[in-house]
Amino acid sequence: MTITITAFERSPDGGQGLARDTRVRWALEEVGQPYEVRLVSFRAMKEPAHLALHPFGQIPTYEEGDLALFETGAIVFHIAERYAGLLPKDANARARAITWIFAALNTVEPPILELSTARILESDKPWTKERLPLVEDRVRNRLHQLSDRLGDADWLDGGFSAGDLIMVSVLLRLRSSGILNEFPNLSDYVARGEARPAYKRAFAAQAAINKPPAG
Fold first, then answer.
1. Taking Cα atoms as reference points, which of 78, 94, 89, 106 lies closest to residue 167?
2. Are the CB atoms for 62 and 3 separated by under 8 Å?
3. Which domains does the chain have, with CATH numbers?
4. By C-alpha distance, which of 86, 28, 31, 82 is closest to 60?
């Protein structure tokens, strides 16, 4: 069965790999599964056909036969469960890897998204100057905790897993803020994720969509 995912027709990040379809592309590249991409415009995302796949009108979605999924974490978890390469065989190690998926999305990503909102969407608000340091401190607190846990290990729990894939994807959102550089082991951790051939293929595929037209 052909796997089809949806992605932005023109990504808001301009092809920097931050759009969430990159996470799904990366997972599929890691497990060696071919896939097709259906590009959707912002207008099409709010139309009935897309809302039938994603009730909140976002991307990505995942279709495989009669299965349709939305939410990046659920999609990556499904891929990791169905195909070998992203979850350990040992039951306990597998459970820990799944825990890191949830930790990345539920504990680490929320303050990072709040920071993005404060820096980009709320930069012109009169209270931003006072609020921004508080948001940055919440991000740093999470990074301190994560940095302590990672220590000098290459990955979060033994070998690379879906938990690392999601965590690296989440941390990449911090690059423009400079905060990630305050934690050398986390910065190196993200660099290791980006160095993986599967990530490079996923990034290149997403960037190609957003390449400016020649001339």
1. 106
2. yes
3. 3-85+199-209 (3.40.30.10), 91-196 (1.20.1050.10)
4. 28
